[in-house]
Specification:
Blueprint (H helix, E strand, L loop, with lengths): L3 H18 L4 H9 L4 H4 L4 H28 L6 H17 L16 H11 L18 H6 L1 H10 L13 H12 L7
The structure holds heme C (HEC).
The site of heme C (HEC) has 19 residues, from helix 8.
């Protein structure tokens, strides 16, 4: 008698085997493996939905290619409709996950010095973005580097909030707001 675990394992093996055999999940699995490089895909509140829809789109597109061989062999039209629906799903997703610019701040801007801004970069970012360790080639260890990478910093730390990575350096909301104000005021590095 097989144990219940053996039965379950055989069942899982069968389901995944069937999916892989049809190669329906090739594209979705590739997507899942690469998605952690693209913050906008998983930084939203409903990131699981993004994954579900990407999986669906990938499987649909793949389905057209799977059926294509059979259709060509039997002289019937290729069922591109799956791929078209898949692409439509992707298109909707593109607009759904597009980062919205944060609402403009209303409070009258109190004086903001570059020293304050640089302090945030030094405390929260330089640890992983300096001469020895420049993740993605980005450094924040000098005023010039901060100015040069201001746009990217704004994107990652203010809009997407994917930096600092896993918030390892515990940046505060107030500090993010400070970077936002500095960016909107034109990223000046003179005090
Ligand atoms: C704990 C380490 C760590 C800290 C702290 C950190 N980063 Fe990063 N940062 C990384 C890593 C790792 C990458 C590369 C990520 C990748 O390959 O997707 C990166 C990439 C980036 C990128 C490039 C993103 C892209 O996809 O082009 C920017 C911009 C950035 N970080 C800005 C910041 C800012 C601004 C701060 C501080 C508020 C910060 N980082 C703090 C580790 C860190």
């Amino acid at each position: 008698m097989p144990s219940s675990w053996e039965v379950r394992f055989c069942y899982l093996h069968y389901v995944f085997g069937a999916l892989f055999h049809r190669r329906c999940v090739t594209l979705p699995v590739l997507f899942a493996m690469l998605s952690n490089h693209y913050g906008f895909l998983y930084s939203g509140p409903r990131n699981w939905l993004v994954l579900v829809f990407m999986m669906l789109a990938g499987a649909l597109i793949r389905q057209s290619f799977v059926l294509r061989h059979k259709a060509l062999a039997t002289g019937r039209p290729v069922p591109w409709v799956y791929a078209m629906v898949g692409c439509a799903v992707l298109l909707v997703l593109v607009f759904a996950v597009a980062p919205r610019p944060p609402a403009p701040h209303s409070a009258a801007a109190s004086a903001l010095t570059f020293a304050q801004v640089q302090q945030v970069f030094t405390q929260r970012c330089v640890m992983c973005h300096n001469d020895q360790l420049a993740n993605k080639g980005i450094k924040f260890d000098s005023a010039e580097m901060i100015e040069k990478n201001a746009q990217a910093a704004y994107q990652q730390a203010v809009v997407l909030k994917t930096m600092p990575l896993n918030n390892a350096t515990q940046i505060t909301d107030a500090e993010r707001a400070l970077l936002k104000r500095w960016f909107e005021a034109g990223t000046k590095i003179s005090p």
